[in-house]
Fold these 4 entries.
Entry 1:
Amino acid sequence: MNAVTFSFRRAWLLGFLLAGVFAGELTAAAPGSATESLPPDATISGRAVPPASDLAWWYRTPATKFWEGVPIGTGRFGAMLYGRVRDEIIPFNDETLWTGRPYDPVNPKALPSLPEIRRLLAEEKFAEAAELSANLLSHPVPVVQTYQAMGRLHLRFDGHEAVQNYHRELDLDAAIARTAYTIGDARFTREAFASYPDQVVVIRLACDRPGRLTFTTSLSSLHASARSRPLGRDTILIEGGVSQPNPEIPSEMRWQGRVQVRPEGGTVRTAVENGVAVVRVESADAVTIILAGATNYVNWRDISADPDARCAAYLAGVGAKDFATLKQRHLDDYQPLFRACRLDLGTTAAAQEDTTTRLDRLRKGGLDPKFTAQYFQYGRYLLLADSRPGTMAFNNHNIWLDDLKGRWRGRWTLNINIQQCYWPAENANLPGTVESLTAFIEDLAASGARTARGNYGARGWTAHHGTDVWMNTAMTDRVFHGMAPQMGAWLVQSLWEHYLFNPDPAFLRRIYPLLKGAAEFGLDLLVEDAATKWLVTSPSGSPENGIALVGGRALLHDGQPRPANAERNSVTAGAAMDTQLLRDVFRQTIAAAEQLGVDEKLRAELATALPRLAPHQVRSDGLLMEWLKPYKEFDPKHRHVSHLYAAYPSNQITRRGTPDLAEAVKKVLVAKGDNHGWSAAWKINLWARLGDGEAAYRIAKMMETDISIHPAPEDSDRVPSMEGNQAIQGYTAGLVEMLLQSHAGEIELLPALPKAWADGNAHGLRARGGYGVALSWRNGKLETANLAAKFAGPCRLRTREPVAVTAGGRPVATRRIDAETVEFAATAGGVYEVRPTAGGGR
């Protein structure tokens, strides 16, 4: 059949027309967008019971806007389920669907401008330097390209006008979304999951009374170019291109969504109704729906794939597998990963309520320790849903969006967000998710080498504030936000951490070129500060934060509010975060090169530069300094705390190794306050590193009921937040940091345990050096811990009370380091039990 020109409005109205009902004129805004009003759904009565899973978010009503839906994902292909009764909406997306095409962001004005920018910075003519730094912005447009939503699956059920005992849930333990309700004597159920092994979304419709399933399936899209058509008797597809907001980089992406409907009993047919391709099922006992989607994207330099062939291959891969087989393949893949880590903080009666009621009670001061454990696991669930081997790096700004603008264009933000999303990958036991990040950084480095040469005349590779699917590594957005040329050095920290948690020589060889390139670029961006003779980066910026200028000149900190005529500026030389990052990446590159026996000359160059880097500095009021000089902050309460990188995730500042600097970090945290979203999540980890469990707990409790650091109309306070800038993964990592730390050359148990967590246990945590850790505690004190060593070597252990170590029931010889620390020789494959000695409580 010939392709049919498609209108998303006509697709949405189709459900009403087929049922003989016309709902009236709809606005041009698409269903699920922030400005729409959804058509009425079925009326609901009765009261559902809690789900069987104790790790489920569940609700008594359908979603009323996009972010109230439940997210599922294969790593590449994601969907959001509203759980509507009569007219279900399931937006679906592919992570690679963006505007544009491969392009080179190097600005031809950049390199000629660099010497003058550096001269102006050396003379502290910051306003002039910032103005000229616009020549470093991405070319031909100063912004990244925009992520694009793909399509929506619509299910219109006949006769589902009034239902009882409605229930919808997201079962985190199974990664399955469920909806259930009754109509008269019939119980209707839906199950949906996103299968990583099969790379499709699978939906099961069932009823406990035969022949009761009659419905119409259609597909829609926000893209004006979208066209739909039937394909055989049980399949329809929709395909098209994308919008083109930047004519300078024409959009050449193509995409397709395809759905196959497999009924058991009853009849199935395809048709074109009112210009829209549909699948009509009548009187079925049960139905399995297979949803696939794909684009022509191959990699950041190649868009030669065929989305039609890809979708056909996904469905062919599913083949004749029945629902039970598909579900088991999904569970066999997902559950071993998810169940590798468990957290138990206790359960109260509050856990039996629906999730919205629990949120409301928490906001009123109620206690619900089970919610904390579930939210912890939600961070792990989402990371698994959007970051698997063979996919792009985690970015829930895209596969769970439903518009053509995206939040922050759907970009990967590289100055905190992507790093924070991977913080729990190591300590919360999802190391396999780092493969997608590693591949992503390898692509970014290849592009970043071009930008390093073209914009800075430098070796190595660079990345800035944000990037898109085309690996734009130039400065983007505006100079104030974009001036962050050392983000490559920050990105590789996640890879170095992965190596520290599992010291695999093969992985070290793989990431060494990335470390080396980040170090070389850092070397070439260093200049000598005339006053101190320190080596400092130029140009430089402390991400998204700024100093106060009057008349183009920087003011110094004086404890007073900034003048009314002050202007903010981010372009400086020698921002503290840059120096901290280079200190780490220089040391790491030296260590890696020594172990691999390569690059002796580079090692010497880095070793010479290291002691000349600017040291950590403390301002006169005791706060750790963010810039080379004690400049007046434009916004002292600003959410970014980039200069505290040295305390977390780095270990340059520790409470025992550098107590004075740790105190300076604490004063920054106190001065800035708790903030929200990703900033709050970072501060959970920082307070935990400082050993202050009560401060970390205070912020964690706030985050559990928070919405977003940048609320938008599609956000909701009815469901736990999972929006990208909420940084739920940072929360998850922070909870582990309160229970276990291993950054200071020792494994510390319960370093920041809050009073509210008097009793609990955790299993499947990980410590650096290749250790698996399980521990339990009672009345705020360690009860028992088990350490599983993957490698042989000395194990240093810190606890608040004296402990005895055994292996296989036999005592292990320990050497006491101090009142809280012992050391013993671990063997590869050894499992060690740690218990407080009798009468040894402190």
Entry 2:
Amino acid sequence: MSINAKALEKLEFAKILQRLGSFCLLSAGQEMAENLLPEIEIAPIRVNLEKTEEGKTLLDLQPLFSVRGVKDIRQYLARCRRGGLLNPDELLQVKDTLRVGRHIKQTISESKVLLPHFREMVAAIEPQKGLEDEISRCISEDRTVSDHASAELAGLRKNKQRLQQRIRETLDGIVRSATYQKMLQDPIITQRSDRYVVPVKQEYRVSFPGIVHDQSASGATLFIEPMNVVQLGNELRAVFIQEEREIQRILQVLAQAIDAQAQAIAWLFAALVEVDFVLAKARLARDMNAGAPKLVDRRMIRLIQARHPLLTGQAVPLTLELGGGFDLLVITGPNTGGKTVALKTMGLCVLMAQAGLHIPAESESVLGVFRQVFADIGDEQSLEQSLSTFSGHMKNIVEIAQQTDQSSLVLLDEIGAGTDPSEGAALAMAILSELLEAGSKVVATTHYGALKTFAYRTPRVENASVEFDADTLRPTYRLLIGIPGKSNAFNIAARLGLSGDVLARAKDYLSEREMQVSDLLENLEEIQRDIETEKRKVAEQRQVTEEQSRFAEQKLLQMEAHYERIVAKAQDEAGEIIRQTRRDADQLINELKEALKKDQKKQQDIERARTGIKSLQTKMAKPSAAHAAGGLPADQILLGQTVLISQGQQKGYVLKLPNEQGEVLVQAGIMKITVPLRDLRLVQEEKKPQKNQRVVSSGQIGREKAQEMRHELDVRGMLVEEACYALDKYLDDAVLTGIQQIYIIHGKGTGALRAGVQDFLRGHPHIQSFRLGYHGEGDLGVTVAELK
């Protein structure tokens, strides 16, 4: 089951698809766009809308992302499957397609932003790097078979060049020969039928030995291949034939290689076509400033600030609803006021959403899913079928009434028009009642005053009108729900110059009740206009307030970032103080060691002094180390916790606890991203006090270290600053406990860390020498240091 084809035609859905196709880069993508039809089940509609949203997200992150470079290789695959050959240009097109497919899969697979639908699309892409390389080896970029394609081909081409050189040398001798110069028309060498020839005058035909291959138009010049190069020419011709056979063989091998992977390549191409199609939907949404509506599993429509997708320029947005408080909306108002535009806007938004396209309306818009959409819009007059305007409309309405049900949306323009007003109004009310009883959601436009009363008296039916400015005699194109429209015929006629006497006489023909109704409608419309004006003012003020709030929040984030930079600068200065303190401490320890050699009895005093120095260093280094590490400890991360991503200054909340790599899954706005712990901060209101530290004496620390002292220090995973600080402490303890050789494990792949550690060792007073070495099981990336 599919949406009624006549409704698609009346609502000009094909023009939407035409615009969509213009954003596709591939002809196959354009075919998908042309054949796109609205879905009638909520699950595929939701998936298609999510794909379009992912496409917009991808383009926001990488605006130039596309399938550019992909060629339509379907006919090439079919030819290979039939055993045919591809020429070099076609082979390069296949290679380019494979290359782009591989890169697109790699880009999407490695993206830190979650794109589940795109990942599913490219899952079918099986990279064909080997086939790419083989085509690149055999086919050069100038679209010829390369000498590298085979040794046989390279040998033949060298032989061909050798023969051509010998022929040219022989002919050059003939051209320069005094004997033959008078016989030649021109002293040149040319070719005829792939044979090298010289132009000889007709009268010297008998005197010049050789084979005639051509003559000039006048017959005065003969193109003769001299007899002494005929044999060389024959050899060259044989090499040409062998070269062509070798080229055909190489092309055959490449075609067979493509045929062997034809199914995988077809899946790759199909995936790229779908990527192109989804990106086209995303580009169309951006071009229309469109967004995804909220889908609900009921038959209803709530469009907020919706714009007709095909109108250019500054279109007036419409806010309308159906299926909530009422199931039938009757729109009245003057001609050219926008009634038909309102009908088409609603119908097109429904069709676009069900086709997986975003709609030009605010994100708060809500749409249900309709299994069928019917439309009777425009002039149905047909001379061929002997149908008047009324007959044409009535024929359509009869077909609609026979097919419609509770899952249908029905759009009727000027219902009952084209016949006697009283009969037309009666028919219109009967038809609308029938559609209402069938459970359909209906929007109808009309000029009949009786339908306004019908809408007022009938449950689940509501009036609406398009606004008209009586001062300017122009429609404002705004839709007013709950207020029936008026024709404004008297106002328009007066503005156009109709005399007051004629207008007064016309009003006399109206009943008193009709005049009262007209005045009431005019008063209601003025009240509604005032309400709408106030609503717009409130909305504008709210928008200004929200902008000011966002600006204030942005300034706060900037101030926090500035504060962090100031703190970082202070920490750098503190780090310099710490390094100077360490140098002073090293000098003091050296002096104490010298004293130790002279007087062993002073060891206790030395230990006490060293402990005091280390305590000072520890106190000064704590802030710097904490800042260098940055981020949050893993044990402070909780599910659902609000955090601040320091790089983008964006708030989010925790979806998953840290993994082994120290990365946390965070929901930031519409995106789910993985963030390292070092880039996370608690927001101010959720910062937690640090846990109490256990306090121990310096004597206890010294005894514990003496008992647990190891010959190795593992600094893998540390920053250079942290590693140097840990190494400095470790060296002091090693010297006091008498260790002569230590192993510093920094890992093989951490060049910066290894360089930082070795720079630190190079100037340290406790180090006699150091080298890269081995320790434990295998090469872990170790520096072996000898202590003094």
Entry 3:
Amino acid sequence: MYTPFRTAAVLGAGIMGSQIAAHLANAGLQVHLLDMPADRENKNAVVEGAFKKAKQLSPPILYSARIAERITLGNYDEHFERLANVDWVIEAVIENLAVKQELMARVERVVSPDAVISTNTSGLSVSAIAAGRSASFRRRFLGTHFFNPPRYLQLLELIPTVNTDPTILASVQAFGRLRLGKGIVVAKDTPNFIANRIGVFVSMAGIKAFTEGDYTIKEIDTLTGPLVGRPKSATFRTADLVGLDILLHVAENLYPAIPHDEQRAMFQVPPLLRQLVETGTLGAKSGQGFYKKVDGEIRSLNPISFAYETLPPLKLGNLAAIQKLPTLAERLRQLYRDRSRAGDFFRHLMLATLAYSAHRIPEIADSPRAIDQAMRWGFGWDLGPFEIWDILGFESVLTDLTAADYSVPTWVQAMHKSGITRFYGEGDRVYEPSTGVYKAYPQPPDEIHLGSINAQPQATLWHNTESALLDLGDGIALFELRSKANTLSTQAIAGLEAAMDWLAAHDDYHGMVIGNEGPNFCVGINLAEVGKMAQFENLNPFNRTHRGIAKLLDQFQALVQRIHYFHKPVVAAVHGLALGGGCELAMACPHVVADAETYIGLVELGVGLIPAGGGLMRMARWAANQALTTTPGDILPYLKQVFTTIGMAKVAGSAVEGIELGFLPACTTLNMNRDRRLYVAKQVTLSLAQQGYIPPARAPIPVLGAPGRAVLEHMAYVMEEGHFASAYDRSLANRLADVLTGGDMPSLTQVDDAHLLALEREHFLPLIDEPKTKDRILHMLKTKKPLRN
């Protein structure tokens, strides 16, 4: 048990300090953000300017613009005494030991005796920063290394000193995991800690393959990106995003700090990197780095002429065959065995990475698990170094390391001699070098994982080719989409229908969660499948009314209504993208557990359609419910907001914004830690069932009829006249307006769900034959981007 922090102060409003303050506010804390006083009448000018700049960052640092109200700005001269009343002080000033030490001395004179104090240093010694402070201060002091951007990257490295009270460490660890949504790795107080030590090594290895080898920038990024389970920014785009000056600074500081590192030479800065920084070529923030966008074309740097040239063709052998392999493990094994230039690069990089990671135990961490977690959570790798080693084969990699003259650490040699050939054992066991045996790391009791290394087996209650119903225990079932990209295919919709039948027939099951552990909750209807159905029906002279699509639409509308009014609780566990039909599926569930990072919206206009799975009906109800009274003047502002949101295919940038826009109910349970989503959803479902679940009442919806439609249609006209919308956008918007206002009705007519669902259907089906809709669908399938025609 721990006492959560309620208030915090962040010292330093630079790029990291402002973002840390923002994420603490996202988590519900009242935050003081302080910086140096300005040399002018308004002493807050420095912090105000810095925070204003931070709020303009993309992607956004706040879940909602309103959350900024939780952050109080101040300066060290006038407001330092505020620290006396906060639970947690985080220092995030310049990476200068003397500056940090001086600030800590000042902090100690002000903070309460119970406050936790931490530093966000990324490379300095945490113990050195607290040198000279009292025993009481050092007991409450530790390193808290957030990764940039703090809202989006899951890793939080905690660095205790020998003086840090274990209960303080445990408290910050629990708060970071539960309230900040972080994956916590406890690191040792060594240069660059864990993730940056390994990550910078891998980055420098990639850069040197360009500056000292014969691989192009594009080839290296191809071989260090999604193909091998890394982010699409790969090596050079990541360097540009981080900033070439930052990468140079980190490498220059790290090199002298690790005199005994066996691969220290890797951190020597290549002359090219230094030249780029000296000439102001810093990456994305300067408009050019290793890449530059020229006349809409992405070009790469010529290291001789320093010109930016069209990306040359790849010379990587038959890489297409490897890219088509369905699983990451298969791609890694095949690439490692490949004898083309692609395989040569991958083997060389992996052997260097695996040897380096192994040698960092026990220097920076005691377990392979800590290094793997740090790289997955901090650098976005799908698999950590030791997980990859297991996939490639322990013996095979060991043989190749020896053949390539890499030294093998004694603990790996001891593993080999004892006959152990995997770092990860069965279930939750991981090899521990210090003991020479496997150690169990049980799955946390408040997490549910499906199909991962540490997963608890879930009994399958029912399944088809694209969905399954699983047993979560305690009488709660989980409906899991397994279709391509988690789309609503015909099989997936049929599966959900069957799952509802199963739930209705089994009295010993009290409710159901709809969720999964894929990248997204549901990206909507399977457009390719709908397109094929439409094409087939157009070719059939006896079926020009799209009876197949109409039947599918009727089926989906009936299904979402059944979910909404079901006699047992059905809870959506939403995360990632929930678009179009996926948004409507979430909206159908009266209770939702949503990851904070949920991007939800009704985006059908982007493909020339309108929402027709109950989305417009529920948004019309939401607008009426938001109004203080049922008068047109009170309802109309909310209806105009709905009309604009859907008409512009706006996607909420977080679950908080999803609630503000009406896509998620006000009672949504906000989940900060993605690993806890299914567990939390199960607990919410169980609690609803135990309370004696009562489904929503079938209340009528007051609509604004023809007068309200005229207002919305005028808005669409203004948008077209202002060149914010095309003529076809306006045509689609007029259809939206008709549904949202209930059709040809007098103002404030009370209608039921079925009336608006019928209007959705009436306006949706004719769009299937519209050429501009077909063009939009085809463009989306080809480019994954909307077409505004």
Entry 4:
Amino acid sequence: MDSINFIQDLAVVLLAAGFAGVLCKRIGLSVIVGYLAAGIAIGPYTPPFSFITDVDRIQTLSQVGLVFLMFAIGLGLSLSKLGRMGLPTLLATGLGAFLVVNLTQVLGHALGWSALQSLFVAGMFVSSSSAVIGKVVSELNLTHEGSAQRALSITVMEDVVAVVMLTVLASQVPGAGGESGYGSLIATMSAFVALLVVAGLVLLPRLFRRLEARADPELQTIIVAGVLFLLAISAAKAGYSLALGAFLLGAIVAEMPQKGQIERSFSGMRDLFSSVFFVSIGMMIDVKLLAGVWLLILGLVVFVLIARPLATGFAMILCGTPPKEARRASLLLTPMGEFAFITAQLGISTTVLSPEYYPVAVGVSILTVLITPLLNTHADRIVRLNEKLEPRWLTRALNAYSGWLRQIQSGKTPPLAWRLIKVRLIQIGTELLFITGLLIFSPKLLPLLQGELFAGVGIETHVVGYAFWALIGLLLLILVVAVWRNIAAVTMIFAESVAPVTRLPAEVIVHAGHAVGAVFLGYWLYLLLPIGSLPVWGWVIIAAGAVAVVVFFSHRLVYWHSDWQSSVQDVFTSGVRPEEARESARVMMHEGLEAWGLRLEDCVVPDDAPYADHDLGQLNLPARFGCSVIEVERNGHCITNTGPDLRIYPGDKLLLLGSGAELDAARAFLLSGKKDISDGADEFSGSILETEILPPGPRAGKTLAELQVARATGVRIVGVQRGEERFINPGGAQIVESGDHLLVVGTLNELRRFRRWLKGEDHRAETASV
């Protein structure tokens, strides 16, 4: 009978979620709002009776939904994508979260919350909803705005911050047995993350290749699901959140060529179980509690709408974003996302937060989601009002700081030695974290092997222990040898670069570096190894055996490490997808557009467009509307050479450059009153916009027709600024003078040719040919 009741409960949950989700989509709200409302309607706290017979089993099933949800979030954020976002974005995200946490703790102190309660409430506020922000950006045609792209990058990174926050909170609740200090907790967690990520990058590609060779997608789905739950349980057994293990596997799989197939295979399960997760949160909301917390909800909404833009905007400014762009981006980062519900669920289940925080989290999230589009519709007015109210000395200070950072960023390229050393230091750090995780978490794994996996096989526990530690010792030897080789390489590069300056022999610097590296490595191993578990003679025997293995099998150890390193590099190189390259190129295209009063916008050619099969010269968009087509995306391929003879076909995505009114008029013409059939895929690649200054020389004083810039370099001049006067989409008769600011569009190689052309490096060749 229990099984029948469970099936009945699951049917009620899914049907309620489906109907509520359809209703919310019809009125323009997120389906998550519908899931929460469905949970409230069928939950035990809504009269006259509960539709669910066993709430606890639905809560247990919701944990499966949490695992799939975090796996999907990880799939959307690959490790290489994190690297491409750049250090300023990573720093701005971390600094913004730090400021939000501190502002929330100040609020908590004023409201009488405990330190741990304040930390949980801060955990609800540290991340925004990437889905809501993406929808707002699309609806307001902000896709090609620099502020929108920056906000999208930061909201993706905030998912990582939220996972870290969840892990910290899960280890700090009473009875969790977590470390008392945040520093040691973060260090240990970093070692655990490195252990899982490196092991996953080495082992999973081999597994997926074998499964692909069998051409059985069903087996691949089953095995990936098993690995997913295994990593989630491993994270929980290590003292962290289930979410951490699931998120890490998603980020690892996102680097692999099989990502698309796995994402499609898991989409149904993700949608099914994540709906159960959100419905279960709604079921825990007691509607009667809303009467007592509505003032708190409104107060926290006001706090979020002020604190998050202040914190994230200030963080972006400190990390190099121009102040105006940072303020506009911060207004997009206000809606709270699904991590608010996950954090609230964790806090209430561990009794840190009272049950009334369920409706608080839901109420604050829904209100911020509804208010965000209104805020960003009037973003320009809000930014101008802020500039008026802001003290002049603060405005001057922020602008001066931003200019100073831009000068530093555009300064000299770092020396070659530093670039080589930086790569080696990253490798050393990753390998040290992996070894640390191996030594910290291996003792927790051994009892599981001895007590559960091999107990029924008849193998003695001490035999399992010896075999286990022999394998761990071999892994440690491989990695320690790799760390030492990297230390030796760093020392050699450093010695060769500083020897001419210090006038010291390079050999002396190398020997000194080796001595420092040996002392550091030895002391680090001394801190990690369980020295007291064996007598001195035992460690002497182990050390002698390790030395013997290194002496006689060093080449084999180096070969194994090189093979692992090569396989990891293959994952990153094969995982770079065209759409992600387009996204990176898109971010580069926003530089300097605001100063020209221009923006970029996509327009898809309808199937029945009357101008289809015409070329751009016949359309004559610059003369008719004052805007230019700077790129055409056709069947996933990007065409950057958009000359007048380029023909336009149905389904082509045109990238238009112009002012707001010009773009509106051009879009109205191009769409010809028909509905835009764009599927929302707004990524493109190739072209970059830059502003260059025309130096004195033979180019100055001539018309664009005489210069033939496009023929000589491939770039197109789409704007000329002379003092306060601007010429948008200039014609061939436009004269350019020395000191003019030229807004040009082209690929990276074309821009390099254009810079050489400006300097006159190609002028002699042209003269000679004449």
